[in-house]
Amino acid sequence: MKKMTDKSKKIKIQKTYLSIKIQVFFLVLLVIACVGLLLPLRPKESALEKRELEKFPQISAASLLDGSFFNQISTWYADTFPFREALLSANSGMKNMYGIQGEQIVANSGKTGDDIPEGGMMVTKTEETDKNDAANSTDETAPPETQEETLPDGTIHTVPEAAGTVYVTGDQAFEIYYFNLDGANAYINMMNKAQKRLDGIADVYTLLIPTSSGVSLDDSVQEKLGSNDQKKAIDYIYSNINNMNSKVKTVNVFDTLKKHNSEYIYFRTDHHWTALGAYYAYEQFCAAKGLTPTPLTDYEKIDFPNFVGSFYSSSNQAPSLKSNPDTITAYKPKGTNDMFYVDHTLDKTYWNVIFDVSDYRSDGKYSTFVAGDEVYAQIDNPALTDGSACVVIKESYGNAFIPFLVDHYQHIYIVDYRYFNEYPPYGNSVYKLVTENNVKDVVFINNADAMTNLDRVRSMSALFD
Questions:
Q1: For the whole model, what pTM was predicted?
Q2: CA neighbor of 176 nearest in space, from 233, 228, 98, 247
Q3: Nearest CA to 157 among 305, 261, 238, 36?
Q4: pLDDT per residue over 7-17, tens digit each?
Q5: Among 101, 84, 82, 43, which residue's Cα sits nearest to residue 323?
Q6: Pairing between β-strand 441-447 and β-strand 203-209 as defined by DSSP bridges
Q7: Residue among 383, 374, 378, 375 at smallest CA distance from 428
């Protein structure tokens, strides 16, 4: 009888304990649900993912009847949950504790690039034959480059185990480059179109900028990553531009950046180049233009530490990147630091060519250069009165390059081709911008990915319709 009583008590205690656990579990769920409904705590944008989060859906009879309203509610609730980014970061930290992160390749989608044609002849995908493939596999040794000075080799030889989009090794990340033949051909045709539209009016320059993977990673590492050879891609585009239209001035910066790859010319945590890398490209532009570059030591230098850029968000918040932030170094122009820009609301804002971003978020400090990516921007240098003017057609890589041009032109007109169609005064027409302002130089500057991105090239081409 006593044993039965003890057993009954034990069962009763177990049931009570289980009941408490269930109540605590549902209480925690209730608290989480209530926190999730607190609208003031819900974020509106993601700093990690560089995007606006879902907005609360508009209710309508149609969306109620087909059920889409409730699906949209679910998406909004999950996407804007309070402390979402802190939870994502904590999840990444937990993975790192278990050894899931270290050397890693993120966002592997099985993507591959097109073969880069040999021989400098423009071809389409349908013209790529087995003979072409055999030519591509031939190991031809290029003649050694003659260098004025011997610099340390900063090439990284770490070999990965798979291929993907972002490769992280140690405290550095690299974006894998996929060549697109249709995009490359479209860029070649676009440059020919732009020069012919501006023939006799302005000189047209193009600078194609390799990303860090093409300059800093060993060739064998790039091959194992499935990353295409950016030098070959740039050579293909430049040789065909020159064959089609010798009046386009192609500026080669790949060899210069490769020579300086032991220096801090690319960020570790971000996909952009540094101002130092942009300066080396500026020197090459000056050589093509016949200008004397301003010595780097003549500029006022400003440092903005604790920059954690785009690779941190696109690498599942790799802790090795966050714990080793970059420093942005900017060089203030001598003639003026004043400019204005027009944003997407078409408001005109007076700004600085190099803006103090000391108090900006760690992921936003690259916008120190020429106000970042706006619909339109303009720099007027009062130190010059010769009427010199240029148009710079760019994406974000151009931002760090433009400040070095300031002391060579009285007027610089900055066009971000992704947004310029929003600016009514010129109606998406660079031709109108050039002719109305007596511009003599038009400078295209694009990174390796943008130069073969078909949608982006089409946006550039539309500027010359």
A1: 0.76
A2: 228
A3: 261
A4: 676 677 777 77
A5: 101
A6: parallel
A7: 375
